[in-house]
Amino acid sequence: MLDTLFKYDFREVGRTMGPLYAALVALSVVMGALLGVKGSKVYAADDALSVVLTVMMIAWLLLFVAISVIMLVLVARNYRDTLFGSRGYLTNVLPARAVEHVADKTINGLIWAAFTAFMSIVAFATFIITVVLIDPAARQSLLEGLGSIPLGSVFSAQSGMLWVAKSAGVVAISFLVFSASAVSWLFAGISLGSMARKHPGLAKAAAFATLALVWILVANVLATTYALLLLVQVAFTVVFSAMSVYVLDRHLDLE
């Protein structure tokens, strides 16, 4: 049942996120092409192309930030609508336990967070590659830089590859842990706030603020090392998820 729930939730978020990812990559290509054409004259404000490029660059940077915020909003809205909103009746008559619903939504949010980070890297790489392919000066600079690297330094750099791999692993694990705790915090706030019969919006805001305050205070006290900080995030993910499961099991009221 978990895979069926996940399939529908993944598709629902993907209907909006897919076009956003495509827009981000497309804008990266256009930005790279324009920057490649302008070259060193990109900051000249005496022609229309420079003005267009400046405006597009601002929009491009804002899209990098907005796409993450939109992803979180979509994941949270999907959780609210399918469990506590207009589609709650249909979802909650399915032969699935509350823990399966919460696990499904959390995994869905975690995957979309990871995919959003990946697509941001792809978009930035696409931008750099486009600039290098179009701008002869950038391409020449890259070739000269590669040509000036001594062969001995290449072999010596291989010894640092293990350290790079370990660092990348730590970054990936940290990203997943913090993403899971953030998603479960969103779900717990929505769940607790939905228990209020009057002013549910205000109740959700209060739940978000209270949970975040406790989260920060406990992390500041217990997280004396980075490993402990990660353990605290895992613990809060479990606690927040347990809150959501408890509300769905004991206090769900769709009236």
Question: Overview of this structure, please?
Answer:
The model has no long low-confidence stretch (mean pLDDT 81). With 255 residues, the chain is mostly helical. Helix 2 runs antiparallel to helix 4. It contains 9 helices and no strands. It is 84% helix and 0% strand.
Mean pLDDT: 81
Q: Which percent range describes the beta-strand content?
A: under 5%
Low-confidence stretches: none
State the distance separating the first and last CA atoms.
Answer: 26 Å
Report the major sheet: none
- Note the total helix count: 9
Order of helices and strands: HHHHHHHHH
Count the E strands: 0
Q: What structural class do helix, strand and pairing data support?
A: mainly alpha
Helix content: over 70%
Shape, principal axes of CA atoms? globular
Short structural summary:
The protein is mostly helical. It is built from 9 helices and no strands.
Notable traits:
255 residues, mainly alpha, 9 helices, 0% strand
Secondary structure elements and pairings:
Blueprint: H1 2-38, H2 48-83, H3 88-92, H4 98-134, H5 136-147, H6 151-157, H7 161-193, H8 200-222, H9 226-250
